[in-house]
Amino acid sequence: MMERFRRTRLNPHLRSLVRETHVSVNDFIYPLFVRPGEGIKTEVSSMPGVYQMSLDEILKECELLQSLGIYSIILFGIPEVKDSIGSDALCDHGIIATAIRAIKRAYPKMFVVTDLCFCEYTDHGHCGILDHVHETVDNDLTLDISGQQALVHARAGADMIAPSGMMDGIITTLRDALDGGGYVNLPIMSYSTKFASGYYGPFRDVAESVPSFGDRSTYQMDPANRREAIRESLADEAQGADILMVKPALAYLDIIRDIREASQLPLAVYNVSGEYAMLKYAGNAGLIDYNRVMMETMIGFKRAGADIIISYHAKEAALLLN
Predict the structure, then answer these.
(1) For 83-94, what is each residue's pLDDT tens digit?
(2) Interior/surface letters 63-96, b for 16+ CB within 10 angstroms, e for the rest
């Protein structure tokens, strides 16, 4: 018998009833970039609609996000002074700690995830203490200060820590530091499979974290490696990560599916700056129906196996979903 697939497509209500994949406002985490000062809201030229903001503007943005039903953010700090080890990230009065306290005080229901890395805080733009001999980041020295950074975030009131530096052993280091500091219930969302990608270009504009030499290919993953990508995430699961992540998302849907099938942990994807900018510029040029392609992209992430989507599109998606 010929199958008539169209029977369940002709009526829009039936199409909704049999739809297999759904996107909800509750799926999103929205990135925010905070810098010192007051009254600052500077649009990033390479990312239309994305801003560096002073803390007073960040608080206004949190109010807007909650009005849209978005209650989860991931926070990045841009300090006034950078140095070789990212000292501002290790200070209880640094930009990130100050922002966490202010947001939690003003919006206690906001779920604040903190990006734990050093690239935004160092004068060289790399993700930790430099190994000058090999022109890379010294993995173990960076682990030593990462535990300190996690405790700064925890004491300030972060709801979840998200280490993004791709240091080997980072989850064990952070779990030991957090547990030892009395934060046994503070979850870790690991950037467990993070590729050395060209899609990050615009992010380095907004976070002011362009490496002063080379790139990050010695510690982030080779985009060509599929089996290693799975191993990276499973290693972080074994070390105690609560949530795994694939970053970027759009060119790595096969990896998202592989990790979804290999692990029972919740899985996040980071819909990164370059992916966002491509859709924005194509929409602004009239080449695509922006809203339609944006939502189709979000559905693709969910269909591949993602539970959580970190995206600069989140506010626009929320407007369409509400």
Answers:
(1) 877 878 888 999
(2) eebeebebbbbbbbbbbeebeebbbbbbbeebbb
Using DSSP's 3-state secondary structure scheme, residue 47 falls into strand
pLDDT at 137: 80
- pTM, full prediction: 0.94
pLDDT on residue 135:
75
> Which residue shows structure tokens 């002063």?
212
Whether the Cβ atoms of residue 231 and residue 284 lie closer than 8 Å to each other: no
Complete DSSP assignment for 172-227: HHHHHHHHHTT-TT--BB---EEB--GGGHHHHHHTT---SSS-STTTSBPTT-SH
d(CA 16, CA 37): 47
Residues with catalytic roles: 194, 247
Are the CB atoms for 79 and 36 separated by under 8 Å?
Answer: yes
Residue type, 279: L
- Are residues 255 and 263 in contact, defined by beta-carbon separation less than 8 angstroms? no
Which residue did the predictor score with more confidence, 45 or 31?
Answer: 31
Tokens read off for 314: 């989140």
Give tens-digit pLDDT for 215-233: 777 788 999 999 999 999 9
Rounded Cα distance, 56 and 40, in Å: 8
Q: How far apart are CA 255 and CA 56, in angstroms?
A: 39
